[in-house]
User: What shape does this take?
Amino acid sequence: MKVVPLRLIPGDDLRRALETWMGEQEVQAGCVISAVGSLSLAQLRLAGATQATAIHGELEILSLSGTLTLDGSHLHIAFADSSGAVIGGHLCADSLVRTTAELVIGLLPEWRFCRELDPATGYPELQISPQAPG
Assistant: This one.
């Protein structure tokens, strides 16, 4: 595994920035190892929901985890608002960095991740295969 640090700045879209960055890599599989920072706007799809919920405020990122592929990502986030209330779910696009997002990403050159529609779930789910040596 290759470990890469990444810092996002105010106004960056957390999800889109990660997906864009992953698309620039030669490796086809990645994961979020750690993340701290803050958001001013979080677009969150809660469990069982079909649409994102927008949450505005001074939001502290407590955790971010998930897989990164060239054709999409699956990211879950938990954050706290200014009162300390914690909420989490699927991270959606248009979630904006407030002050910083400091990330550590793991790149997995020996694996290939892709997403294919799974008829059982109705979602594009992770497919995992070994990457042929280059």
In short: The chain is about 5% helix and 60% strand. The radius of gyration is 15 Å. The CA atoms of residues 40 and 58 lie 5 Å apart. The first helix runs from residue 14 to 23.
